[in-house]
Automatic annotation (TrEMBL):
Function: Allows the formation of correctly charged Gln-tRNA(Gln) through the transamidation of misacylated Glu-tRNA(Gln) in organisms which lack glutaminyl-tRNA synthetase. The reaction takes place in the presence of glutamine and ATP through an activated gamma-phospho-Glu-tRNA(Gln).
Protein name in UniProt: Glutamyl-tRNA(Gln) amidotransferase subunit A
Domain Amidase: 1-439
Organism: Effusibacillus lacus
Enzyme Commission number: 6.3.5.7
GO BP term (any one): translation
Family that this chain belongs to: Belongs to the amidase family. GatA subfamily.
Residues annotated as the enzyme's active site: K52, S127, S151
Pfam families (UniProt xref): Amidase
Length: 446
């Protein structure tokens, strides 16, 4: 913990991964853990870690990188975080992110931008950019992020670390500030697969406080890391190796797939025919859910309230106008429109039907294959400022990660070499609740 805090002190002035560093509390906590208990140590005993700032931490400010929650101190702790505590981790701080997790570059934070530790001119990815950057910078061995359309896997890919989005329902969302409730999932970002498996082991499991939490047994993830993938069947979706994919990124991913083949896996091309509709489907469903979830920030119940309001309605309007940034407002407007009477059937309902088709594409492939592999993102980390004025290009960046959230499946990004001097990520997608196979393949490769 001391070393982690020292490294943060030394390099976070330029990387800016943290919105809050809990140095004093961390040292106090670590000191308490200096007296080792008898018997087996808990999984994360004394290990420093960081949390994306959209996970509630009792007594520690939780902002979602938004001005509307700039002063919000939650009265309770998210279940996933409470589980880390049960395993005796040490919280060193809360990491920067795109406001309310909306974005792919962490440039939508209302506080400041985070730099990619590989090249400070480039973005760390997003929305869990701070979590990926702090792990890549060597501050801490792990951090938690959240993934609604790729926000754990894409920043992990851009920063050259491992990022895992578990199956929807595997990790409790209680205390994770809701963005799009049917897509959000908390996941670990770590330096290697074994560490990611260890953190998943700690945070996974049923929680009665989250009605969408799945009551499915949590296997021993570390036991899955055997290195043996002989005979394993891998599908390579042709739609994920098409237009828009950087040729150098494609080359690294193909090399990685050859490595898997040389380890005894059987690789075949497959088709996920509805892939082309995934981004549009997502940009109806996610904003629709967001517009509903973000209605609660009215200046009364949470966070900041403007002072110069004349009456209640005026207070709501001013608080929301000043408290939300441009991307959040864009999503609220999109979502409100898609849900409004007369348009619901044409947009939201339609999107839900396409979502089912996307899921069925995967179901069909998983009848014959154990995992599906692809690039995590079409390019390496782009330059800061390059896409921020063009939301469509930013949205298209998530083309390979979004279908996985729409289908509720687990996905992992593992580093597979460099292109243009920057890290490339290999995405491995698995069957629902089969994180073990994902981890096994990623570990065998790494
Ligand atoms: N980049 C996507 C978005 O802006 C996904 C974000 C996420 O996974 N939280 O919605």
């Amino acid at each position: 913990t001391e070393v982690a805090l020292q490294r943060i002190e030394e390099t976070d002035g330029t990387i800016k991964a943290y919105l809050t560093v809990t140095a004093e509390e961390a040292m106090a906590r670590a000191k308490k853990l200096d007296n080792l208990p008898e018997g087996n140590l808990p999984l994360l005993y004394g290990i420093p870690g960081a949390l994306k700032d959209n996970m509630c931490t009792e007594g520690v400010r939780t902002t979602c990188a938004s001005q509307i929650l700039a002063n919000y101190i939650p009265p309770y702790t998210a279940t996933a975080v409470a589980k880390l505590e049960e395993h005796n981790y040490v919280l060193v701080g809360k990491t920067n992110m795109d406001e309310f997790a909306m974005g792919s570059s962490t440039e939508n934070s209302s506080f400041f931008k985070t730099a990619n530790p590989w090249d400070p001119e480039r973005v760390p990815g997003g929305s869990s950019g701070g979590s990926a950057a702090t792990v890549a910078a060597g501050h801490v061995p792990f951090a938690l992020g959240s993934d609604t359309g790729g926000s754990v896997r894409q920043p992990a890919s851009y920063c050259g670390v491992v990022g895992l989005k578990p199956t929807y329902g595997r990790v409790s969302r209680f205390g994770l500030v809701a963005f799009a409730s049917s897509l959000d999932q908390i996941g670990p970002i770590a330096r290697n697969v074994e560490d990611a498996a260890t953190v998943l082991q700690a945070v996974a499991g049923y929680d009665k406080m989250d009605s969408t939490s799945a009551n499915v047994e949590v296997p021993d993830y570390l036991a899955a890391l055997t290195g043996d993938i002989k005979g394993l069947r891998i599908g390579m979706p042709k739609e994920y190796f098409a237009e828009g994919l950087d040729p150098e990124v494609a080359a690294r991913v193909r090399e990685a797939i050859q490595t898997l083949e040389s380890l005894g896996a059987v690789v075949e091309e497959v088709t996920l025919p509805h892939t082309q509709y995934a981004v549009s489907t997502y940009y109806l469903i996610a904003p629709a859910e967001a517009s509903s979830n973000l209605a609660r920030y009215d200046g009364v119940r949470y966070g900041v309230r403007v002072e110069d309001a004349e009456a209640l309605l005026d207070m709501y309007k001013k608080t929301r106008a000043q408290g939300f940034g441009p991307e959040v407002k864009r999503r609220i407007m999109l979502g409100t429109y898609a849900l409004s009477s007369g348009y619901y059937d044409a947009y939201y309902l339609r999107a839900q039907k396409v979502r089912t088709l996307i899921k069925q594409d995967f179901d069909k492939v998983f009848e014959r294959f154990d995992v599906v592999v692809s690039p995590t993102a079409p390019t390496v980390a782009f330059k800061s400022g390059e896409k921020i004025d063009d939301p469509m290009t930013m949205y298209l960046n998530d083309i390979y990660t979004i279908p996985v959230n729409l289908a509720g499946l687990p996905g992992i990004s593992v580093p597979c070499g460099l292109a243009q001097g920057m890290p490339v990520g290999l995405q491995i997608i698995g069957k629902a609740f089969d994180e073990s196979t994902l981890l096994k393949v990623a570990h065998a490769y790494e």
